[in-house]
């Protein structure tokens, strides 16, 4: 039976057909007037998505590459850095700081629990911090932090840089770089921005740009000063993934057309509907502060990850993610970012109803999709 | 009048239609059995192209990113490095070593002149070198070095690592990593390997792998130990540009079908034909040791870069490259790597005949293409 392939991992995510077709166009060279014009448009559209007047730099690499560019370009060796550690990606940034010889203080929290502004305020009162590294939306636990409130308290502590991993938040959740006072914002192309993996984006506030002029680690490919010099001429210091950049425009123009507020609203609505559907089927969410970009759902007793995700994949051609590290087997994760509309969401809820039945669990057909539908109706 | 777009810059280069169509396919996730199988095939095909039994690591980033991964993963801080400096990319690697605090000794040669094995032997006799960094085919001057002979003398000097930028040689010119004794070989996806930019490849000899275990600079994204650990499971430590990887297979299978020796022969034949065509039209080559991957041609007196390349672009829809740095206005450069056959080469020679006429130079129509044809006939 025909079953369309549906990708619901929290990155890579589904890419619009128009963007894919752009990727199939003949390759051109990037040191041309035409490309510079496109690169300038990319800048404008990224600034819109980041909600910033700051420059957004494009790195050919993953989101981790963008993080490294931000970090090595702005933080002096040996600096004291506060890292909120409450998920796999948060752990990566802690390991990262340590690999580069930083004095990393960790605010350790259980998986699924976000840091509060008060907790960060308390930590920073110890003084001497150069930066706070925070994951806005932690993909591994599907947990969102109250970034607006956290930024507010960080701003009370002078020139401490607030470095935000927005890899699964920017372009999905409300994110206002300038209004909130975020110093460094990072994302990747393969999440909310509806492109395959290969590009990372990073934006620096004037405070972070000033830090870049003063102190940095040894770097070259990740030296944002080089990118800053090149971008004045709408260019890049190293060969960029130019076909991805051109295709990125196609996806970003779609965001512009829907409006960023429209994207936020849709994503929130779809996530709320999905959670309602899951609850109606007896599931609980893993996170104490569920993100709207991705949902982590605890397995019901007696259901294995292998059977559940295997059935979704093999019988329904739907690919959702499992848990990472110690969360493996405990949860499954479903993406709501990017090229994903309300009926895509409904298909996953429906497929989960069929999967529960197949795995021998009692299920009232329509309970999940009905609950989701009720929430979705609020979008109209 | 219909004029097909023809890309003849020495990277990005033209990409096969089948590969472009692969890039237009729906995006899938990379942590799957299916992707691991493809990634394992990529490994085998890259080893074939590199002519090596060593592992080839895939970095999401440009060729410079691959160079940085090799360099920071194998060279101890403060090491003495011999860099052959005779072109723009060679200059980049010298700047690179300095940026990372290396003691960089430069063998400086005029643009267009390759280092000889004897010169390198003489330099290395001073002793204490950890590595030699060498551009095999220097794209900016279209100059090839005799890598086989150079590797032979480097091997006489004990554990000195031979780090080779093969960005415009591997997959175009004869390159035998194992047979010649190259320690670190680097290339990018957007040259001979017939893919858009976005992937860099690096392979380490057992000697280089041993160096990696002992001494390295601070790194994270470029830490090849992480890649080594992941590749045991046909995986990557960070989100890879997975759609590019899948498309890379399409292009590499074409190389496998033509055979690597067939690719080398075609590329050499096309380059020789192009040079013959240019000489018949009165041009001289810029390099004293012309590479077969890209040709740099000196402008005839009274012809400006703007008029010449402008006419090719605007009237013939053919994009060739100009000179970089001090070579700007002195030369134009034409690619022979990758998805480029004998009739593509002939079209450029023909278009140059028309361009000379248009720019008021005397031209005997057919002189260039005739000379090229004569050389091409040797391919059959």
Describe the structure.
- Two copies of one chain form a homodimer.
- Chain A is of the alpha/beta class.
- Chain A folds into two domains: 6-12 and 260-379, Aspartate Aminotransferase, domain 1, CATH 3.90.1150.10; 17-258, Type I PLP-dependent aspartate aminotransferase-like (Major domain) (Aspartate Aminotransferase, domain 2), CATH 3.40.640.10.
- Chain A is 43% helix and 16% strand.
- Chain A has helices at residues 17-23, 33-50, 63-74, 88-99, 117-124, 147-155, 177-180, 206-214, 224-231, 242-258, 260-280, 305-316, 342-358, 367-376, and strands at 6-8, 56-60, 80-85, 103-108, 129-135, 137-138, 143-144, 161-165, 184-188, 199-204, 294-298, 318-322, 331-335.
- Chain A has a seven-stranded mixed sheet, with helices on both faces. Chain A has a four-stranded mixed sheet with strand order 1-12-13-11.
- In chain A, helix 11 packs parallel to helix 13 (342-358), helix 12 (305-316) crosses helix 13 and helix 13 (342-358) runs antiparallel to helix 14.
- The first copy, chain A, is globular, with a radius of gyration of 21 Å.
- The first copy, chain A, starts with 5 loop residues before the first strand and ends with a helix.
- The model of chain A has no long low-confidence stretch (mean pLDDT 97).
- At the A-B interface, helix 1, helix 3, helix 4 and helix 10 of A face helix 1, helix 3, helix 4 and helix 10 of B.
């Amino acid at each position: 039976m025909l079953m369309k392939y549906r990708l619901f991992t929290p990155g890579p995510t589904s890419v619009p057909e128009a963007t894919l077709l752009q990727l199939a166009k003949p390759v051109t060279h990037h040191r041309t007037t035409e490309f510079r014009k496109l690169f300038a448009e990319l800048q404008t559209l990224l600034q819109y998505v980041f909600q910033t007047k700051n420059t957004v730099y494009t790195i050919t690499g993953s989101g981790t590459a963008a993080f490294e560019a931000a970090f090595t370009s702005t933080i002096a060796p040996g600096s004291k850095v506060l890292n909120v550690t409450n998920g796999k990606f948060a752990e990566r940034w802690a390991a990262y700081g340590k690999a580069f010889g930083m004095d990393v203080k960790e605010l350790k929290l259980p998986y699924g629990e976000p840091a509060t502004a008060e907790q960060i305020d308390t930590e920073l009162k110890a003084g001497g911090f150069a930066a706070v590294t925070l994951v806005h939306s932690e993909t591994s636990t599907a947990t969102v932090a109250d970034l607006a409130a956290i930024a507010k308290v960080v701003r009370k502590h002078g020139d401490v840089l607030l470095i935000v991993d927005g890899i699964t938040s920017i372009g999905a959740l409300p994110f206002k770089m300038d209004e909130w006072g975020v110093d460094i914002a990072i994302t990747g192309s393969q999440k909310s921005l509806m492109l395959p993996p290969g590009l990372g984006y990073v934006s620096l506030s004037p405070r972070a740009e000033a830090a870049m002029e003063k102190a940095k680690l040894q770097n070259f490919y990740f030296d944002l000063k080089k990118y800053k010099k090149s971008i004045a001429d709408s260019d890049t210091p190293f060969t960029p993934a130019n076909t991805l950049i051109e295709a990125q425009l196609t996806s970003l123009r779609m965001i512009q057309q829907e409006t960023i507020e429209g994207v936020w609203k849709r994503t929130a609505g779809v996530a709320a509907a999905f959670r309602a559907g899951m609850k109606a089927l007896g599931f609980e969410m893993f996170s104490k502060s569920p993100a709207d970009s991705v949902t982590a759902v605890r397995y019901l007793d007696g259901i294995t990850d292998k059977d559940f995700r295997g059935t979704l994949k093999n019988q329904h051609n739907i690919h959702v993610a499992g848990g990472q590290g110690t969360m493996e087997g405990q949860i499954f994760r479903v993406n709501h970012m990017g090229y994903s509309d309300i009926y895509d969401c409904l298909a996953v809820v429906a497929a989960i109803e069929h999967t529960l039945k197949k795995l021998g669990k009692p299920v009232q057909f329509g309970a999940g999709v009905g609950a989701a539908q009720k929430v979705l109706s609020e979008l109209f």
